[in-house]
From TrEMBL:
Keywords of the record: Amino-acid biosynthesis, Methionine biosynthesis, NADP, Oxidoreductase, Threonine biosynthesis
Gene3D superfamilies for this protein: Dihydrodipicolinate Reductase, domain 2, NAD(P)-binding Rossmann-like Domain
Protein name: homoserine dehydrogenase
Coiled coil feature spans: none
Entries under InterPro entries matching the protein: Asp/hSer_DH_NAD-bd (IPR005106), Bifunc_Aspkin/hSer_DH (IPR011147), HDH_cat (IPR001342), HDH_CS (IPR019811), HDH_short (IPR022697), NAD(P)-bd_dom_sf (IPR036291)
The keyword Amino-acid biosynthesis is assigned to this record: yes
GO MF annotation: an example: homoserine dehydrogenase activity
Catalytic activity annotation: L-homoserine + NADP(+) = L-aspartate 4-semialdehyde + NADPH + H(+); L-homoserine + NAD(+) = L-aspartate 4-semialdehyde + NADH + H(+)
Pathway, per record: Amino-acid biosynthesis; L-methionine biosynthesis via de novo pathway; L-homoserine from L-aspartate: step 3/3; Amino-acid biosynthesis; L-threonine biosynthesis; L-threonine from L-aspartate: step 3/5
Length: 354
């Protein structure tokens, strides 16, 4: 290589072409002709069924079309071969897939960076979280997780920077679910709660299965990621979670869920009416303090610091050595395709120059 030659563009494989993956492709396409585009070469795109690869780079605006035109069968085995070549190699995980998350540590161990919106890698079992950390530390590879909590808000980054600066994290509390924030910001006891759940799902705020949000499972994962990043290595079952999903909804297949969503309506109308009588607001809150973690719906006074925000806002308070009395508060949109894709691609750009 000539002494001042530009490094080769990072070779990127995008897994997942749903709500978030499509927004990644749109953002990449919007970079056409800009210096950002020169840093990244999209060489592989896949969803559950199909994949398309091109060593010379797929045009992001045409990638979905390429998937339908000449589809290869989608296989996670094919990702490494598709990424082979000069430059940094990066997998973007925009799926909600257990089998993709299971491979994060493997890819890191093979020198492939991972940028993920999926929380299943770091937010489920402690052993998987440790495997990912260990694989990242062993090689010269990075794990981009900005989009896993707060859809790219500077939450994990702030926790890491505080600790790098010598602070211990004392406590974390807040709203970590964008879809539940949106639901409780819009619910006024008049429209059925189930109708709002459908609207949040159609807007791309919920998980592919909205029960993952309503059960508190998605928030459990996010709180685990925050806690572990703050040095509190909790197992998943150490988080106390109070679900909003009644047992009759929990047992249904995803196909029969939509028609049964009204089972949510009566219990939530009652919770809302109780809170309203006291002049309070319902908020789905995650708390970590003294090694204890819990997640559930709380009724908070209107002027409570965690009751603020609008839309899909996450609002998270962090107490540390320097923020002992007044916490650091981070607030902003915590769900949605565009912000999540931007968070993922921030990580990809960082990883591309490592
Ligand atoms: N929607 C949001 O606001 C946010 C979502 N996320 C996370 O982003 C991830 C994706 O969410 P959505 O786009 O809403 O889901 P989605 O259901 O719209 O899309 C998931 C995509 O993953 C693909 N997929 C599943 N298994 C695969 C495999 N083995 N190989 C390749 N592709 C596979 C599916 O075919 C689909 O294209 C989830 O993990 C979610 O938690 C994170 C932050 C915010
Ligand atoms: N379903 C999630 C999306 C982002 O992680 C949420 O509602 O926060």
């Amino acid at each position: 290589m000539a002494p001042f030659a530009e490094p080769a563009a990072a070779r990127v494989a995008l897994l997942g072409t749903g709500t978030v993956g499509s927004a990644v492709l749109e953002r990449l396409a919007s970079w056409r002709g800009s210096p950002f585009a020169e840093k990244i070469s999209l060489v592989h795109v896949a969803n559950t069924r199909q994949s398309a690869s091109d060593r010379s780079g797929l045009a992001p605006a045409e990638a979905l079309h390429r998937l339908t035109l000449a589809p290869q069968r989608s296989s996670l085995e094919a990702v490494e071969a598709a990424l082979a070549g000069e430059g940094a190699r990066i997998v973007i995980d925009a799926t909600a897939s257990e089998s993709v998350a299971e491979r994060h540590a493997h890819w890191l161990a093979r020198g492939i960076h991972v940028a993920t919106a999926c929380k299943i890698g770091q937010g489920t079992s402690l052993s998987r979280w440790r495997a990912i950390r260990a694989a990242g530390a062993a090689g010269d590879v990075g794990y981009g997780d900005s989009a896993t909590v707060g859809a790219g808000l500077p939450l994990l980054r702030s926790l890491r920077e505080l600790q790098t600066g010598g602070d211990r994290i004392h406590a974390i509390a807040g709203v970590l679910s964008g879809s539940l924030a949106w639901l409780f910001n819009h619910y006024n006891g008049m429209r059925p709660f189930s109708a709002l759940v459908r609207q949040a799902r159609d807007a791309g705020y919920t998980e592919p299965d909205p029960r993952d949000d309503l059960s508190g499972e998605d928030v459990r994962r996010k709180l685990l990621i925050l806690a572990r990043t703050a040095g509190v290595e909790l197992e998943a079952d150490e988080v106390e979670v109070t679900s909003l999903v009644p047992p009759e909804l929990a047992i249904l297949s995803r196909d029969s869920l939509d028609a049964a969503l009204p089972a949510l309506d009566m219990p939530l109308r009652e919770r809302y009416a109780e809170a309203y009588k006291r002049g309070e607001k319902l908020r789905f809150i995650a708390r970590l303090q003294d090694g204890r973690a819990r997640v559930g719906l709380e009724s908070l006074p209107h002027d409570h610091p965690l009751a603020g925000g609008a839309g899909t806002d996450n609002r998270v308070a962090i107490w540390s050595d320097r923020y002992r009395t007044q916490p650091l508060v981070i607030q902003g949109p915590g769900a949605g395709a565009e912000v999540t894709a931007a968070g993922l691609l921030d990580d990809v750009l960082r990883l591309s120059t490592r």
